[in-house]
Amino acid sequence: MSSWNLPIPEIGETPLVGEGTTFRSITETVCRVTENKAPRGWWIAFLIAANFTGVMTLSIAYLFWTGVGVWGNNAPVYWAWDITNFVWWIGIGHAGTLISAVLFLFRQKWRTAINRFAEAMTIFAVICALVFPGIHVGRAWYAYYMLPLPNEMSIWPNFKSPLIWDVFAVSTYFTVSTMFWLVGLIPDFATLRDRAKNKTRRLVYGALAFGWRGSNRHWQNYERAYLILAALSTPLVLSVHSVVSFDFATSLMPGWHTTIFPPYFVAGAVFSGFAMVMTLMLITRAVYGMRSIVLMKHLELMNKIILTTGSLVGYAYAMEFFIAWYGGNEYEKFLFVENRLTGPMAWAYWIMISCNVLSPQVFWFKRFRTSIPVMFVVSILVNIGMWFERFVIIVTSLYRDFLPSSWGYFRPTLIDIFTYAGTLGLFFTAFLLFIRWIPMIAVAEVKGVLPEADPHHDASDHGEHAAAGHAHETAAAEAE
Amino acid sequence: MSRREPHVFSPAQDGAKVFWKSLEDKERPELAQQRALTEVAAVAAAADSTLVKLRRGKTGAAPAVGEASVGRRGFMFFAGATAALAAEGCARRPVEKIMPYSKAPEHVLPGVSNHYASVRQYRSEAIGIIVESHEGRPTKIEGNPKHPSSLGATDLWSQAAIYELYDPDRSVTPMRGGRAPVTAGAASHQPATWAELDAVLADIAKTSQADGGAKLRILVEPTNSPTFIRLRDALQAKLPQAKVHTWASVNDANAREGAKLAFGQVVNVAADYSKASVILSLDSDFLGTEPGNVRAAKEFSAGRKLENGATDSMSRLYVVEPTFTVTGMNADHRLRLAAQDVERYLLALASELSAKHAIDVGGLGKADAAIPGVTAKWIQVVAKELAGARAKSILVAGTRQPARVHALVHALNAALGNAGHTVHYYPPADRNEADPAVSLKALVDDMAASRVGTLVILGGNPLYDAPADLKLGERLKGLGSTVHFSSHFNETSEACVWHAPRAHELEAWGDQTAFDGTVAIQQPLIAPLFGGRSDIEVLAKLSGDISPKGYDLVQQTVRGSLSSTGQMSRVWNEALKTGVLGPSAKAYGAMDARKTEVAAAFSGAKPAAPVSPDNLELNFAACPKLFDGRFANNPLLLELPDPVNKVTWDNVAHVSKATAQALGVQSGTLVRMTRAGAPGPIDIAMWVTPGQADNSISVVLGWGRQKAGRYGNKHGFDVSGLRTTDAMWIASGLKVAKLGAGEVDAIKDRMRKVGMAAGESPVAGRIRPDDPIEVDTGLYKISQTQEHDAMEGRPVAIDATLDEYKKQAFFPMFPSSSLGDRKDLDQHGKTIGVRESGSPDPNVDPLWNRVDYSKGHKWGMAFDLSACTGCNACVIACQIENNVPAVGKEQIWRGREMYWLRIDRYFVGLDSNDPQISFQPVACVHCEEAPCENVCPVNATEHSPEGLNDMAYNRCIGTRYCANNCPYKVRRFNFLNYHTSGGTYDDVPETEKMRNNPNVTVRMRGVMEKCTYCVQRIQEGKIASKRTGEPIKDGSIVSACQQACPANAITFGDLNDPKSAVAKAHAKDRSYRLLAELGTHPRTTYLGKIRNLNPEMGA
Description:
The complex is a heterodimer of chains A (480) and B (1099).
Chain A: H1 23-35, H2 40-66, H3 81-92, H4 94-105, H5 115-136, H6 162-195, H7 199-208, H8 216-249, H9 261-288, H10 296-327, H11 330-341, H12 346-358, H13 366-369, H14 372-398, H15 414-437, H16 443-448, H17 464-479
Chain B: H1 23-27, H2 29-45, H3 72-88, E1 114-122, E2 125-134, E3 137-143, H4 156-165, E4 175-177, E5 189-191, H5 194-211, E6 216-220, H6 226-238, E7 243-246, H7 253-263, E8 268-271, E9 278-282, H8 293-302, E10 316-321, H9 326-329, E11 333-336, H10 342-357, H11 376-388, E12 393-397, H12 403-415, E13 423-426, H13 436-448, E14 454-458, H14 462-465, H15 472-477, E15 481-486, H16 491-495, E16 498-501, E17 510-513, E18 519-522, H17 535-542, H18 550-561, H19 568-578, H20 595-604, E19 616-621, H21 635-639, E20 647-648, E21 653-655, H22 657-663, E22 670-675, E23 682-688, E24 696-700, E25 730-738, H23 741-751, H24 764-767, E26 783-784, E27 799-801, H25 802-807, E28 823-825, E29 831-834, E30 859-864, H26 873-881, H27 889-894, E31 902-908, E32 916-922, H28 931-935, E33 941-943, E34 949-951, H29 961-964, E35 972-973, H30 990-994, E36 1008-1009, H31 1015-1028, H32 1040-1044, E37 1050-1054, H33 1061-1066, E38 1071-1072, E39 1084-1087, E40 1089-1091
Parallel strand pairs in B: 6-7, 6-14, 9-10, 9-12, 10-11, 14-15, 15-16, 19-24, 21-23, 27-40, 30-39
Antiparallel strand pairs in B: 1-2, 2-3, 4-5, 4-16, 8-13, 17-18, 19-25, 20-26, 22-23, 22-25, 28-29, 30-37, 31-32, 33-34, 35-36, 38-39
C-alpha cells in the first residue's frame, strides 16, 4: 500500500511543505502566534477594525431609529447596497467551504495550508452577510415573521418566496460551516491545551478540545466525522449561492430573470472567495512568517482557480448578452446595451469587466502567477470587481426597467458607505481575533502531509517513497 | 342626508373659551379670561429671557410656548416633558388614548359616514360638492352630480380643500399689531380676543355711520355669493361714501371687459364642448385653470369618447398657446406662439374667414402678412375647418388675452353661428364687480391721497400678489386702521394692524352662484375650528349688525328670493339636501356681437412689438397647483407633480430650447429677470420645456411665499416683482441674466434648511433638501417625479390617429409600423425608438391552473387614455381618500414619492420643440398573476377571491422585494415615517390627525403600500348590499379617483356583470393591458388614445 500522501516526483510534484519543516516547527510556528504577546501591528489593526465595527453599529442604530430612508435606496432601486453587500459577503464566504470540503473530498492535499484560514474567513463573511437581510427590511423588529413560527394568526411564511429559501439556505450553510470548522479545530485546540502555560488557557482550550487525547479511536471518529461533514458541506457550496441567485432569477425583471444565474453565481462566489483568501493569506503569511507552510505552490494553485473562475464569470457575462440578443426581448436588449454597456451607470459595468474578466488574465503567465505583488493587486481588484458585479446586477437592472416613467437613478448616502465599511470592520475584527486566539493553520492536517506522517508498517511498503520518508524522519529526529 | 335637520352651528360669541379655576372666576369669567390672556401674552413676550431658550416659536407668528423663562408654566412644561421623555424611552409604539362618547350623540353611528351637500368657490365659478363626514369631521370632498358646475366631479383644489381646513398653520386667534417699529426677532403682533376685535369693528361701524363711510374702504375678493352681494349693496346703501374694492390676482377682468365690448354687458360664457366638432383655444386653459374647468372637462371628453367605436364623431381641438397647459396637452394640433402674438394670429384668422369664407366680423384692419412662428396652414386650414363647422365650433380665449381678443372671439362665435348652439351666455353673479387691477389702483391712489381711514380686507393676500408697481405694502404701512380677515397670518396680515381668522368654506354658512345662475347653499360641516368669521358675517357687522349669524344671513337671502315665505322651510331643506337651490337661470340665447365696437377696439390698440431674442416676452399664469398662492401651505398641492413637467415643490420659468441656447441657460440655471417699468427683479430657475414658444418665457404665480406656513414658506420663486398693472399677464422687454455665484449663494442661504426659522416645523427637515443647489453642476435642484420623458419605443401609452383607428380598430395589439411611424424621442431630440410591438395578451397556456374568478365579484378598472386630460384631480383624490402623505422635496429628489395613482407623461413625436403628449394614469393594475405576491416572504400581499391584490400592512416587514418585482412600479415604500417628522407621532399637529380617513390605515415606516381599488369603498358597498338585500348595482361603488375624474376617464366595477360599464370598456376594441406580454393578466385595462388629426395640417 503506497501512501497517497506523498508527492510523486515522476509527475513533477514537490513536497507540500518547505524543506526542513518538521512536526515541531509546524506546531511552533502556528501555536506561538496565539501564545506570544500580540505584536504592535496587530493591536493597531485591531483598533482600526474595532472602530469600523463601531461605525457599523452606530449606522445600524441610526437606521433602526430612522428608517430605511437613511440609505440611498429609492423607487425604483428598492435594493441597492444592502443586498449588494449581502451577496458579496455570501460569495466571499464560499471559498472556505469549497477549499475545506470539496478539495478535501477530491484529496487535494495542498488545501491543508489554507483551509483553516479559508474556513474562518467563510464564517466571518457569512456573519457579515447575515447582518444585511436582518437590517435591510423596513421593520427589522418583525424580521422574525420570516421564520416558520407558530402564531395566533396561523400565518406561515410564503414558501414560494426565494427570500424564504435564502433564510434556510444561508442559515444551514452557516451552521454546517461552523460545525465543520469547529470539528476540524479539535486536534489543534488540544495541542494548544497541552502547550498551555496557565490555567485559563488550559481550561478554555481544554473545553474547546472536547477531551481530545489523540487516541487511535479519537482519530478514527474524528476523520469519519470530518468526512461526513465535508460530504454535507459540499452540496451546500453549490446550493447557497444558487439559492441566493434565485432571488433574482425567479423574478421577472430584465437582467434578473436569467437561467444562467445559479452556476454563474457559484463561479463568481468561488472567484471572490479565493480572491479574499488570497488577500488575507498574503498579508498573514508575510507578517507571521509562514512561508514554509504556505508555499508559492499553494498560491499558484489558487491563482489558477482564480483564473478559471474569473473566466467562467466572463463567459457568463458574454452569455447574458448573447441570450439578450438571441431571445429577442426588447427589454432585455435595452437593459444590457443601454443600462449596462452604455448609459448613466456604464461606469459600474466597466469597473466590473476590467476587474473581474481582464485583471485575472495575467495569470496565464507563470511569471505573474508566482509574483506576490501581482497576485495581491489582482486579488484586491477581484474583490472590488465582484462587489461591482452584484451592484451591476441589482442596481442597473432596477434603475431603468419596463416603464420609462418610473426610471430613476441611485446615489448612495453616507450611511450606506458607513454600513458597508462597518461590515469590513466587523470582518477584520473577527479575523484578527481568530488569528490571535485560534491556530490559523490546521496544524494536525499539515503534519499529515509531511512524509513522516506516511504510515508504513510492513516491508512491502518500503519503496522509494518510504526511503524518502525515512530520510525525512531521521532528519526530523535529529533536528529535535 | 340623515333624518336630522342640518346642524345650526352657533358661532362662538367671543371665540375664546372661558375656563374657571374657582367659583369666583366662574362668577366673573371676564376677569379670568383677562388673566389667562395676559399670561399667554407674557409668555410670548418674554422673548429676551436668557434662562431658557426653546427652538420653536421664533417667527413670532404664533404665541408659542417657546422662549419662555422658567415660570410656573415653564416649570410645568419641563416637568411634563421630562416625564414624557422618561416614559417614551421604553415605549415602542406611541400610546394614544381614545375617548369614547360618554353620551352618544343622536343619529351618529360610529364608523358610518354621513354626507352633506355644500359648495366651493373657484374663481367666478361655484363647484357643488358633497362632503363625507366621519363623526362630525369632514374627511373627503366629492362632486355633486346635481350641480351644473360639478356634474359629479371636482377639480384638484376641491379635493385638496380638506387639507386647507385642517392646515396646522391656520390662524387661531385675532392678532393686534402695534405701529411701533418692530425689532428683529420680536413678534410684530400680539394675540387678542374676539371681544377686542368686535369692539374695533363696532367702532369702525360707528364712525363710518357718522361720516357715511367716507373714510372706510373694504377690499374683497370677487364673489359669486348672493348674500355677499346683498349685504354689500346694503352696506353701500347705508354708507354711501364707503367704497368696496375688489382684488384677486387671478381674475376674469379681461373676459368681463371683452364681453362688455362685444355685447355691452358682462356675461358668463359657457361653451358646451360636447356638442362641438371643432374647438379653437386661444391661449385658454379651459380644461385646467379657467373657470368652469370641471364642466368643460366633462363635456370635452364626452365629445371625444368614441363610445361606439370609430364610427362615433369626435371633436378636434386646436390650441394656440405659449407654453404647455393641460388643455394644450390634449390638443390634436397645437401651435406654440408667444402669448402676445395670439392676438395677431386671431386677426389673421378673422381676416382669412372674412376673405375666403364670407364670415364677416366687421371692418377689422388688415392682418399682418406673416406672423413669425405661424405657418400658413394654421390660418388657412383652421379657417376652413371653422367655416365648415358652423354652429358646431367653439372659439375660446384665455384669461391672459386682452379684452379685445375676447370680444373678437365673441364676434366670431356669433358670426359662425355658434352662439346659442355650442356657446351659451348667462347673466353673471355679480354685475358690479370692478376690474380688480383698476379697483386696487383706485384704492391705492386713495390711500396715497390720505382719503382712507380704515381698510378692511376680507380674505386674499394683496400684499403678496398685488401688482408690484402699486407698492401696496408701503401704503398699507402708513394706514392707522387696518383689519385683515384671512385663514392664515400671512404677508398681508403682518402689514395690517388687526388680523382675524376667517372661516373656511367648510366651516361657514354661505351661498354661491354657478355660471348659469344656479344657487347652492354653502353648508358648514364643522363649527369653525378656531372661531373664524365668514365674509358675510363681517360685512353685516360693518353695516351695524351687532352679532350677525351666517345662517340667518343666508336664510334671509333665500327668503327674499322666494315669492312666498311659506315655501321657505321646504325650499331650504331641499336645497341643503340636494345642494342646489331652485332652478337655474335661463341662457340669453344667441347674442349678437357689436362688430363695430370690436373692430374699433382693435384699430385703437397699439400692437406690441413682435417677440425676438432682443424682446423676450414674459407671461404669467395661474399655477395649476397653487393657483394664485392661496394653496401655498398645502403639502399635497406643493408636492403634486406639475401636469406637464412633473416638477414638484417648485415653480420654474419655461423656456424653449432655442431660446435657452441663445440665453446660454439650461434646465436648473438660476437667472435674474428684469424689465423696464417693473420694480423688482425676480430670481428664478429656468426649465427647458418642449412645446414652449421661442422668445417667450412662461412663469406661474403663487410661489415663493414668505409667510405661507410651515410647508409653504420659501418654496419656489415669487414672480410678482415683474407683474404690473399694465402688464398683468403679458410683459415684453424682458431681460434675463444668469446669476453670479454670490447671488446663487444668497438663494441657497434663503432656501436652506438651516436658514429656516426654527419654529416652522419639524417636518421641514424632510421637506427641504440640505442643499438647494446641485453640488456638481451648480444648478438649482429640481425634484421631478418623472425624469424620463420618452417612451423608448415601448408599447406603454398607446395612441393612434382617428384614421388609423378606423383602419385598425385593435391597434394597441399591433406594432405601430403597420399604421405609420410612431417614433419616440428624448428631450434632446434624439430619436430613441420606433414602437416595434403592440401590447397583445400572451397567447401561451399557463403552466398551472389559473384561479377561477367567474363566481362572485371580479373587480376591474379601465382608464380611457382618450378621455383623460391629465388634470391631476384623481391623484389628489386618491391621496385624500387613502391617507397618502406628501414626502417633501428632498424625498422626491431621491425618488421616493408615495403616489398610489400617478399620471405618466410622455413626449411623443419627432420634433422636440413641438412634441405631442401622451399621458397615462397608472395605479396598481391588480394582476391576476401578480409578480409581487409570490416573492413576499411573509405573505403580506395576497390575492382576494374577488381578484384584488391586497396588502396586509400589519404583516409587511418591508423587504421591498414585491416592489422590485412589480413591472408597473406602482408599489410605494415608506422609507421614513412620512406621517411624522421622524420618530414619534407626538409632533403631528392635532388638526392633521383629524383629516385622515378613518377607514384606511395610516401606514408607518418600513411598510409597502399601493392602490387597493379603494377596498374600503368596495366593502362599504358590499355591506350596504348585504343589509338591504339588493345586489350591488353597477356604479354604486366608485373608487375615489373615478369619483373625482371630471373627464369620466376612469371606470370601475364588476367584470362578472356583463352589463357593467367596466366590462363594456374591457370589451372595447381599443382596450389593451399594459405590459400584457409579461403574462400578469392585469385587471386594469387601458383604452388606447385617439388623436383626431387633420390630415391637411400635415405632420
